[in-house]
Each structure stands twice: as structure tokens, then as C-alpha cells.
Amino acid sequence: MNRAILTHEEIPKSMIENRENPIAIKKEEFKKLGYQLIDSIADFIDSIEERPVTTTKTPSELQKTLGDAPLPTNGTPAGELLTKTTDLLFNNSLFNGHPKFLGYITSSAAPLGALADLLASSVNANVGAHILSPIATEIEKQTVKWLAEFIGVSPNYGGILVSGGNMANFTAFLAARTAKAPKSIKEDGISNASEKLTVYCSKSTHTWIEKAAILFGLGTKSIRWIPTTSSNQLDEKILEETIKEDIKNGCKPLMVVGTAGDVSTGVVDNLAAISNLCKKYDLWFHIDGAYGIPAAVIPELQRMFEGVSEADSIALDPHKWLYSPLEAGCTLVKDPQHLIDTFSSHPEYYNFSSVEGEVAQNFYEFGLQNSRGFRALKVWLTLQQVGRNGYIKLINEDIELSKLLLLQAENHEELEAIAQNLSITTFRYIPKHYKSSAGQKEDYLNALNEALLNDLQMGGEVFLSNAIVNEKYCLRACFVNFRTSQKDIGEIIAIVVKEGRKTHERLSQTKD
Ligand SMILES: *Cc1c(COP(=O)(O)O)cnc(C)c1O
Q1: How far is CA 298 from CA 263, 369, 389, 397, in A?
Q2: How much is the pTM?
Q3: 156 C-alpha vs ligand 1 centroid, how far in Å?
Q4: Is the C-beta atom of 265 inside 6 A of ligand 1?
Q5: Is 297 in the pocket of ligand 1 (CB under 6 A)?
């Protein structure tokens, strides 16, 4: 039975005529709150350098700060909430926009990106379908084209913005599977494939590849981890031998992943050589450039990135070296039809077909998401604000600072410089009289540098992360930070040495 339907007269007037509600904010109030918020954000950004890089509070202390109130039954005025919450965030966060934040690969965010996000969520375009996001879809298409131009591949590459590097690599992985695995797997699934599908990458490839192999049905045993050469690049000789061996054993090789800027030390694989092998064996050539590929914009580095324009797909992360606020990743595909072949579906409840005589691009057909936010806007705006030349300057300066840190570590008697590629520097602390006998004390030096890293991260003066290079536990600085300058390098060296001495003293006392 249908439930009773109210007649027009029975509907309470207040409900339809004057929808007083707890969520809308009237214009004058919105202005007041907005201006206040922008004022506090401007003060925050202006004073970021003077703040500790991160809070020293422990998880339980943070829980106490937050309190453990149950879900609110009734509402609270928005102004009160915003004031409290700006304090909460500005006083208890890690600031990757701080000039001495050089950990992992997380950049300082372009301030314009914050304003772009506010604008994007105000319009609230759903960039899943053109009809739901008319200009936003066109802006995302242009952003994708500009990103292709930025890294020096044909602007005919198509693609999509996603949440980050992992998702960008997943999106490409699935396109590769569609393109190179037997066509029947779309219906029959992977377990019915007669040949074992295999993928190839160097052993320094980021963990996304394992997640992808698990999630998309190949299993981790399908990953062939190819050893690296002495320069830490994927060894193409071993790659070719492995591919041949697999074919002989009845496997079906799908794709090779080349990395353009590995997470630990910034090494770029020999992309041109990998591309040639992919052509020879009819494999999909994917480049994980999540961190490093924006450096291809620098004319002097173009040789390092030779082969990029041959890639079937590329993952890159505007939220890393293009300084976009989180989240922004991007998948570029040479022939975007592979994305549509992989992700498109046409349910009867979608009326998204083309405008007469024109093709409207629907981004839900290009990736995993259905409803999608307008993350392209912040990238699109910042690309215009900075321009190609501005980015060449910023990225070059990051690289120069990374080299300067290596040099200063080299010249310090208590530091050992380990490696430097793109904008990543690895080094470690070595107590004064240890240098000559460092070889015999590796275990202690590893323990010391690990403890030192933890002390540094808790200290709030500088934020570095770690890398293991040739079995040495290293401190690692990655420069994707337009606020860091030369003076920070000297100060970071001083902080590391000061803390290194303290940590060493503490460890040698507990040892005795
Ligand atoms: C950062 C990174 C990833 C993962 O990217 P997220 O944005 O963190 O998901 C993958 N590969 C490489 C080479 C990276 O540097």
C-alpha cells in the first residue's frame, strides 16, 4: 500500500514557505565569518615560520584536547565552531608548509590553492558528468592537457585528476590490464585467465604496486621485482631476461613500471631503454612520476627524462612538486580510449549522452570515481599563477637547496653525505671519533640515526624522514618546499649536529 499522501492544504505552511533551517547561513553572517576566517588563515600563513614544525603532543594528549563529547544532539553556531576549530588546528598540527618541513614528499601548499578549494566547494560541481559540471569539466580537461605539456609529452594525452599518486598508478594499472590482458577477463575474471599475468618494476618501486596487484586480482606473486644497477636504476638486462623467461614459462607479461624519481633517493630509471623493451615485447609502459616527473620541465634535465613521451601512461602528483594542496594526483594516458574501455558503463539512469553534434566528456568514464569533486581548480589556477617559467625557477631552487645540504653535510666532520638526486638528500650523523672506524660500527650508527630521527621529529625544530641506503639508516630531506631558503640549510645542519650529540650521549650512557 502507498502511504497516505498529504493534500496540499495539509502540508504545514512553515515547511514550504519559510524553510528556517540549521544549516544555511545568511549573507551578512557568511561574510562576517568568512572574513574572520580569512584573517586568521592569513596570520597563520604569515607566521608559519615562527611556529614549531609539529606539535609535541602524544595521541592521548590530543584526544584530551579534543574531548570525548558524544555526537551533538543540538546545533552550535557556526562562528563559535570556526573560532574554536582554527585554534585547534593551528595549535595541534604538523605544518608541511613550514620552511623546515622536508619529510617524506609533502609540499608546502600554494596559498592560492586554499582559495581555489573554497571557491570550488562553493560552486560544488560534480565533475563526474559534463552536464553536472559544465565549465568545471572543461577546466579539468585543460588542466590535464597542461600537465601533459608541462612534463613534455604530447597534449593529446588524456587523463583524469585523482586523489594522489596511489590512485593515479591504480588507474593506469587497470588501463594496462584492459589493454594487454586477454579481452575475456572483463567477463570471465582473472582467475579464468589461462596464462599467469605478470608485471615488472624495480625493487625500489613504491608500495602502490603491491596494493594494485592485490586489489586488481593479479596477486603479489605476479610482480617481478627487478634488481637495480649500481646507480640504483632498474637493470634493463635483467628485465629483458626475466621477461623472456616468463614468456618461455607460459606467463603473459602485461606492463613494465619505470620510476621517475624514486621515493627514497630520487633516482630516475632509464626510461628510454625501458620503453624500447616494452615496444619489443608489446608491453604497456607505465611511468610512476608521482614525485619526480615535474622536474622534466627544466631544460637542463631533459636528458634524464628521455623516453617520457613514449609512455602509455604516467602517474604524477600535483600535490607534491607542483605545490598543490592535498589532494591532487593525475593519470595521463597516451590513448585515453583505454581509460574509457576500462571504466565506462552506461546505466539506464544516466542521461549523460552528448550534446547534439558535440562530444561531452564525462569524467566518470575515465576513472574509479563516480561523483567527483573539483580538485582540478586549484591545480589549474596555480599553473597559471606561476607559469612554466615560475615552476622552472621553483623546482630548480629546490634542487639547488638539496645539493647545498649535501655539500654542507660533506664538509661537516660529524656528518656523512650519502646521496643526492633530484631534490632528495640523504646523510647521517656520525659522532666525532667514529668516522675512521665507521665500518665496524654500522649497527650502532643505524640505531643512533634512527633514534636521532625520532628525536628530531618530536623536537619540532625540523622535520626530516628516513631512507635506508646500502644498509645505512639515513636522514632524508626532500625539498618540495617553496618556503625553504639557504639560511634554513645552515640552521638544519646545526640542529642535526646539536641533537645528534645529545642522542649519542643518551645512547652511549644507556649502553654502559
Ligand atoms: C608519493 C609517491 C607515491 C604515492 O603517492 P600518494 O600521493 O602518496 O598516493 C607513489 N609513487 C611515488 C614514486 C611517490 O613518490
Answers
A1: 20, 33, 9, 11
A2: 0.95
A3: 24
A4: no
A5: no
Residue 263 Cβ < 6 Å to ligand 1: yes
> Which amino acid is it at 272?
A
Q: Is 166 near ligand 1, meaning CB less than 6 Å away?
A: yes
Residue 37 CA, ligand 1 centroid: distance in Å? 32
Question: Cis bond leading into 149, ω under 30°?
Answer: no
Angle at 229 between CA 226 and CA 230, to 5 degrees: 145
- The contacts of residue 38 (CB under 8 Å, 6+ apart) are none
Q: Distance, CA 305 to ligand 1 centroid (Å)?
A: 18
Q: At what angle do helices 486-511 and 442-459 cross, to 10 degrees?
A: 120
Distance CA 67, CA 62 (A): 9
Query: Which pLDDT belongs to residue 1?
Result: 45
Residues in the chain: 512
CATH 3.90.1150.170: does it fit domain 47-109+387-512? yes
Measure Cα distances from 188 to 181, 220, 368 in Å: 12, 21, 20
Task: Tell me what the pLDDT averaged over the chain comes to.
Answer: 94
Q: pLDDT tens digits for 287-308?
A: 999 999 999 999 999 999 999 9
The ranges assigned to domains in the chain are 47-109+387-512, 126-373
